[in-house]
Scr1 family TA system antitoxin-like transcriptional regulator
Amino acid sequence: MREGSCSFTFLLTEQAVRWATLPPEGMVEQAARLVEASRLERVRLGVIPLGTVLPKGR
C-alpha cells in the first residue's frame, strides 16, 4: 500500500471494528494499524456507523 500506483478503499462496519477477537492489547494494536493505514496517501478507510440504514440495491 505504500508503493506503486494502486489505491485502496476499505469500508468496515462499526460492529466489525468493535468485535473483540483478540485480548485488549491486540485490539489496541489492530486499531493503531487501522489509523496508520488511513493516513497513507493511497488509502481510504471508512466505517459505517452502527444503526445506519443502507438503501436497498437495485
In short: The first strand starts at residue 8 and ends at 13. The beta strands are 8-13, 43-48.
